[in-house]
Design a protein that fits this description.
Layout lengths: L1 H7 L3 E10 L2 E11 L4 E5 L6 H8 L7 E6 L2 E2 L5 H7 L1 E3 L12 H6 L10 H6 L2 H19 L17 H13 L5 E5 L7 H18 L2 E5 L3 H7 L2 E6 L2 E6 L1 H5 L2 H8 L5
Parallel strand pairs: 3-8, 3-9, 6-7, 7-8
Antiparallel strand pairs: 1-2, 1-4, 4-5, 9-10
């Protein structure tokens, strides 16, 4: 019955996923539905399988069992670039940007799949290709760079910028793909308090103003409880709780996983 419910509800449906590396069970029968337009946070102690689950969603890992449906179609067996083309974008725990390139050029890379390309046309700078490139650049500057508060840094090399700004560039590059769902892997990790507050605002703005569905992994539980519509909790590769922030906060298995004891 749970699997049938997942098939009928949600933008993204994770059904009975099992993932192992050798004899190590990383994900064990994970069932989860992500609703259109919500912010869903995945939490859990280190090693719980959170990043591995995101890696399955964006087709970086292929689970041995189960299925993942995105907009009603299975994405099992796709390559990461194929999943990206469907509208699944993500950031990474470790910021993966080209340090010597400008903020603008890094963000433009997120739009490359939508741009026209031919080797001959690029060499001779055919007018149609030039107009296409200019159009995409204008859209990025107007819709993404300004939105993420990066206007003052657009021509700065990424390598000279502080971590908080680089994290915003990473998120902006993902948004440049015009995704249907945005996966954020510890986007606030390593940030100062003020930077976390700024990032929290951007996440809420992305949901409200862009209508974006957000799935994120986070260790800052105060931020999780403030921002999330729903929370999924993993522990040792198993889902132990799912619900509203208030429901999850009081769940005995969650308390035990984080504190190592049952609440009295």
């Amino acid at each position: 019955m749970a699997i049938e419910h997942l098939k009928k509800n949600g933008l993204l449906k994770i059904m009975g996923i099992r993932l192992s590396f050798g004899g190590l069970q990383v994900l064990n029968n994970i069932n989860l539905s992500v609703r259109q337009g919500e912010i869903l946070c995945i939490i859990g102690p280190n090693g719980a399988g959170k990043t591995s689950l995101l890696n399955c969603i964006n087709a970086h890992y292929r689970p041995q069992e189960g299925d993942i449906l995105f907009e009603g179609k299975s994405i099992i067996g796709l390559k990461p670039h194929q999943a990206a083309a469907l509208g699944i974008a993500r950031t990474f725990q470790k910021v993966e940007l080209f340090q010597g390139m400008t903020v603008l050029d890094n963000i433009k890379l997120g739009r490359h799949m939508m741009m026209k390309f031919s080797l001959t046309g690029s060499f001779f700078r055919f007018p149609g290709l030039v107009r296409d490139e200019i159009s995409h650049r204008a859209a990025i500057e107007e819709e993404i760079i300004d939105f993420m508060g990066l206007s003052g840094f657009r021509y700065s090399p990424v390598g000279v910028l502080p971590l908080g700004i680089r994290k915003r560039v990473d998120m902006a590059r993902a948004l440049a793909m015009k995704p249907r769902i945005l996966l954020l892997d510890e986007i606030m990790s390593g940030m100062a308090v003020e930077e976390k507050e700024d990032m929290a605002s951007y996440i809420l703005d992305v949901q409200r103003d862009m209508g974006m569905t957000v799935v994120w992994i986070e260790h800052d539980l105060a931020a999780v409880m403030d921002l999330s519509d729903r929370v999924c909790v993993l522990n040792f590769g198993t889902k132990i709780a799912e619900g509203s922030p208030d429901e999850v906060r009081e769940h005995p298995k969650v308390i035990e996983a984080y504190l190592g004891r049952q609440r009295k």
